[in-house]
Amino acid sequence: MQVTLKILRFDPAKDKKPRWETYQVEAEPTDRVLDLLHKVKWYQDGSLAFRRSCGHGICGSDAMLINGKNRLACKTLVKDLGSVITVEPIRGLPVEKDLIVDMEPFFAAYRAVKPYLINDEPPPQRERLQSPEERARFDQGTKCILCASCTTSCPVFWVNGTYIGPAAIVQAHRFIFDSRDRGKRERFKALGSGSGVWRCRTAYNCTEACPREIPVTQLIEEVKRAILFDSF
Amino acid sequence: MDPLKEPVPVMPTAHYAMGGIPTTLWGQVIKDEKNTVVPGLYAAGEAACVSLHGANRLGTNSLGDLVVFGRRAGIHAARFARDADYHELTEEHLGESRERIERIKNSTGKEKVAALRAELQQSMMDNASVFRTGELLQKQVEILKELMDRYKRISIDDKGDAYNTELVEALELGYLLEVSEALVHSALNRTESRGAHAREDYPERDDENWLKHTLAYKVEDGKVAFRYKPVVLGRFEPKARTY
Ligand SMILES: Cc1cc2nc3c(=O)[nH]c(=O)nc-3n(C[C@H](O)[C@H](O)[C@H](O)COP(=O)(O)OP(=O)(O)OC[C@H]3O[C@@H](n4cnc5c(N)ncnc54)[C@H](O)[C@@H]3O)c2cc1C
Ligand code: SF4
Ligand code: FES
């Protein structure tokens, strides 16, 4: 089938503001949007810039606004979109070039929640044991691939770029509810601050955008509650 | 898709590349059969060959390798960095890289990176894949020569400096060609079957002649020289995998 692919492009060396370019691409209904972008880059216009690595939904590098929704280009099939497809960079982060945005503010928020095990107790002889139930408690957050689909679909984040954002809260959840971790108070400092969880207005955009089907809003609410009950 | 109505599309994908950069147990890169270390250069993981996987990396052993030898390389690199002096980056050092980039950017040649890479991938898949023969590998030696020659005439659309991913792909194609050359020449040279190297014309393992590492050195396009390094066996004897 013939697909009309409209891409919002921006070249910092030439353009004052982003511009739409339209490409005609021959595609199979089972092709992914990533295949279309490759067809453009490899055979029509080599200057098109976008990020991708694994090609199968695990590295989180190719989140884009596709037909108005944040999704991974490598997991979105042409047959689910139709013959006119628009692709734009994810919103709320500065565009570096075409579909590539500056992820630094996103990763700064990630680092702020200390996304690693904190536990100063002397390590036991063997591993720190955990029951299957304890492991299950934080399972959902472990599926996060840091693609930024959630954070960059959040209206609070668009308006206030200092909001820590859903992805960082999901990462914090993963450790706060881990029975081996002792660092929740340190994390609550960033999460309970003016740019933390209380900015969330439960718009649910994050949950809808997540390609890993993580119930993002639910995890945010659980973190809010953990902070609230911790203060009593 | 509905598998009752249409066939499920299936295709192979790369799972692992059995690296090749020889290293010490601390991840330091070794450049010859005498274990001479290249100071300050480290490798770990798929890129490296600490020589712990034998001739075929077994399932799950990659992550173990990463955790252990990535850490060791990191520790050693940190120690090295603490004591090492800064070297001045002179035009002599920069010149070659700068020239390589400018050559690609300014080229008006007719060859395209994507088309050339597709030919490289397809021919490597056909001639240097899981089951190999001398005839196919020899054929691939010739194909690589031709592709390397055509690589000199590639040109790109993107002349910019910011996020020039087209330039990166062009540079990477050059490295892919060199790695392919090392692989194909070494595979042709090794007249036995061992681990993941399966020669249909030499189906048996030949410990007498080939229980050794190949070190491949590029002489010029199309010409590779070999040296060899003994395998440290320790407690484990090489055995056929019969299960
Ligand atoms: C689907 C799949 C399942 C697997 N399952 C298992 C398993 O269950 N158990 C197991 O043990 N192993 C498994 N493996 C293998 C294992 O995951 C990999 O071997 C391992 O992750 C490789 O790690 P690495 O650090 O060596 O290389 P990589 O993780 O590939 O890292 C290479 C890095 O180099 C970067 N890079 C590339 N070019 C440049 C450049 N020019 N400049 C700067 N950076 C660059 C890349 O972006 C990348 O981050 C699996 C592999 C795959 C594909
Ligand atoms: S929570 Fe989901 S959408 Fe957000 S970064 Fe993680 S994987 Fe992406
Ligand atoms: S390319 Fe890795 S998630 Fe899409």
Topology (SSEs and partners):
The complex is a heterodimer of chains A (232) and B (243).
Chain A: E1 2-9, E2 19-26, H1 33-43, E3 63-66, E4 69-72, E5 84-88, E6 95-97, E7 100-101, H2 104-112, H3 132-137, H4 139-142, H5 155-159, H6 165-176, H7 184-191, H8 205-209, H9 216-230
Helix pairs in contact in A: 2-6, 6-9
Chain B: E1 21-22, E2 28-30, E3 37-42, E4 48-49, H1 61-83, H2 91-106, H3 113-127, E5 131-132, H4 134-151, H5 165-189, E6 198-199, H6 207-210, E7 212-220, E8 223-230
Keywords:
heterodimer, A: 232 residues, alpha+beta, Ubiquitin-like (UB roll), Fumarate Reductase Iron-sulfur Protein, Chain B, domain 2, 2 domains, 5-stranded mixed beta sheet, two-stranded antiparallel sheet, 9 helices, 7 strands, 15% strand, B: 243 residues, alpha/beta, Methane Monooxygenase Hydroxylase, Chain G, domain 1, two-stranded parallel ribbon, 6 helices, 42% helix, globular, binds flavin-adenine dinucleotide, binds iron/sulfur cluster, binds FE2/S2 (inorganic) cluster, Helical_ferredxn (chain A)
Protein architecture, described:
- The complex is a heterodimer of chains A (232) and B (243).
- Chain A is of the alpha+beta class.
- Chain A has two domains: 2-101, Ubiquitin-like (UB roll); 104-231, Orthogonal Bundle (Fumarate Reductase Iron-sulfur Protein, Chain B, domain 2), CATH 1.10.1060.10.
- Chain A is 32% helix and 15% strand.
- Chain A is built from nine helices and seven strands, in the order ββαβββββαααααααα.
- Chain A has helices spanning 33-43, 104-112, 132-137, 139-142, 155-159, 165-176, 184-191, 205-209, 216-230; strands at 2-9, 19-26, 63-66, 69-72, 84-88, 95-97, 100-101.
- In chain A, the strands form two sheets. A five-stranded mixed β-sheet of chain A has the order 2-1-5-3-4, covered by helices on one side.
- In chain A, α2 (104-112) packs parallel to α6.
- The N and C termini of chain A lie far apart (61 Å).
- The relative contact order of chain A is 0.13.
- With 243 residues, chain B is an alpha/beta fold.
- Among the domains of chain B are: 21-82, no CATH class; 101-202, Fumarate reductase/succinate dehydrogenase flavoprotein-like, C-terminal domain (Methane Monooxygenase Hydroxylase, Chain G, domain 1, Up-down Bundle).
- Helix content of chain B is 42%, strand content 14%.
- Chain B contains six helices and eight strands.
- Chain B has helices spanning 61-83, 91-106, 113-127, 134-151, 165-189, 207-210, and strands at residues 21-22, 28-30, 37-42, 48-49, 131-132, 198-199, 212-220, 223-230.
- A two-stranded parallel ribbon of chain B has the order 1-4. Chain B has a two-stranded antiparallel sheet with strand order 2-3. In chain B, strands 5-6 form a two-stranded parallel ribbon.
- In chain B, β7 (212-220) and β8 (223-230) form a beta hairpin.
- Chain A binds chain B through residues 11-13, 30, 41-43, 45-47, 49-50, 56, 96-98, 100, and chain B through 1, 9, 13, 112-114, 156-158, 160-166.
- The complex binds flavin-adenine dinucleotide, iron/sulfur cluster and FE2/S2 (inorganic) cluster (FES).
- FE2/S2 (inorganic) cluster (FES) binds next to loops of chain A.
